[in-house]
């Protein structure tokens, strides 16, 4: 278990310490469940009322909330960001692998950097390059000529096909498949003729990819994921998609081929994107959106019908089906009014 004094935490967070700096912190918890040895955070004023009942050893909060806190506190500009940083400091997640397991299969001409760890039953194929300090979890497959950057972590059963490139300091969760064939076929009189996918997947630095996500290799050019991108669980990224720096993609999102997504975008869960179009920088897409056309202006975009009680939804659906008829009637009324004028 990691432990640290409150004074040491204050120094690492560049926070103002109020209270006993010698108090030892060993874990994080929510405000309502935190107890001795734990630190919590207050990110919204609407939860100030909970401070009087909080039993945490310390609370991270803003200057304006300090007067409501009766115990030890760290004053920060962004409590949620401070929470993220403290979570990293106190992180007790084990390594994906330690040392090189006896059951790992490593090709003679694969290149392993200093301090590489490879878990049981992992396979590293010919010509692969594993950077310094990388961790390859149990059952992983790293294909021919693939590259894994320094300090990147692959959890169990991650599959990297041939020639896939992963940058430095990436984190790929269990079961993810990178570099499988894109969905490319030509039709010959009703029969499907497979188009071999000749591109790669190239992933930048500090990219995190959730469990059981699939990223297809390019048909001719590469599928590209830029630095700092975060992708949630069970997403589908098709061949030749390009995703810009620091874009965030929530779970179950589906992106069709040759889509280009800009920088600093936020994509809500279960969204669906048409292919062969472009989404500009700084776009936010709310959950379950169906994006069928390019987006050329930054901003927030939504589609779909929010959840309703079934009886109300049935009425809404029935009215939607009559929109064309209603539009025609409205146009007729407008034309009649125009004639009266």
From TrEMBL:
Record-level GO BP terms? lipid A biosynthetic process
The pathway to which it is assigned is: Bacterial outer membrane biogenesis; LPS lipid A biosynthesis
Matching entries from InterPro entries are given as: Hexapep, Hexapep_transf_CS, LpxD, Trimer_LpxA-like_sf, UDP_GlcNAc_AcTrfase_non-rep
Q: Name one GO cellular component term.
A: membrane
Domain UDP-3-O-[3-hydroxymyristoyl] glucosamine N-acyltransferase non-repeat region per the UniProt entry, residue ranges: 23-88
Reported EC number(s) for this entry are 2.3.1.191
Molecular function GO labels: N-acyltransferase activity; UDP-3-O-[(3R)-3-hydroxyacyl]-glucosamine N-acyltransferase activity
Entry keywords, A to Z: Acyltransferase, Lipid A biosynthesis, Lipid biosynthesis, Lipid metabolism, Repeat, Transferase
Q: Which family does it belong to?
A: Belongs to the transferase hexapeptide repeat family. LpxD subfamily.
Protein name per the record: UDP-3-O-acylglucosamine N-acyltransferase
State the species of origin. Answer: Salinivibrio kushneri
């Amino acid at each position: 278990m990691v432990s640290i004094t409150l004074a040491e935490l204050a120094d690492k967070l560049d926070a103002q310490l109020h209270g006993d700096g010698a108090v030892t912190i060993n874990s994080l918890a929510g405000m309502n469940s935190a107890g001795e040895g734990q630190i919590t955070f207050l990110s919204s004023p609407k939860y100030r009322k909970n401070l009087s009942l909080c039993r945490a050893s310390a609370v991270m909060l803003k200057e304006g909330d300090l007067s409501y806190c009766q115990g030890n506190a760290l004053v920060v500009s962004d409590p949620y960001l401070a929470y993220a940083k403290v979570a990293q400091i106190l992180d007790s997640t084990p390594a994906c692998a330690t040392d090189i397991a006896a059951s790992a299969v490593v090709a003679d001409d694969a290149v392993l950097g200093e301090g590489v760890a490879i878990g049981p039953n992992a396979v590293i194929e010919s010509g692969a390059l594993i950077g310094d300090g990388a961790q390859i979890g149990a059952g992983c497959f790293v294909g021919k000529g693939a590259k894994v950057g320094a300090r990147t972590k692959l959890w169990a059963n991650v599959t990297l096909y041939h020639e896939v490139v992963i940058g430095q300091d990436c984190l790929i969760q269990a079961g993810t498949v990178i570099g499988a064939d894109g969905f490319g076929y030509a039709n010959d009189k009703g029969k499907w003729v497979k188009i071999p996918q000749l591109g790669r997947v190239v992933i930048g630095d500090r990219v995190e990819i959730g469990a059981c996500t699939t990223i297809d290799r390019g048909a001719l050019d590469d599928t590209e994921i830029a630095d700092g991108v975060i992708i949630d669980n069970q997403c589908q990224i098709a061949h030749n998609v390009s995703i810009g720096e620091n874009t965030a993609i929530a779970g179950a999102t589906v992106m069709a081929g040759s889509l280009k997504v800009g920088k600093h975008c936020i994509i809500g869960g279960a969204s669906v994107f048409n292919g062969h179009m472009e989404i500009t920088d700084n776009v936010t897409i709310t959950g379950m959106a169906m994006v069928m056309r390019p987006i050329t202006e930054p901003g927030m975009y939504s589609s779909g019908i929010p959840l309703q009680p079934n009886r109300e939804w049935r009425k809404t659906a029935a009215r939607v089906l009559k929109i064309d008829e209603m539009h025609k009637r409205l146009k007729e009324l407008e034309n009649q009014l125009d004639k009266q004028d």
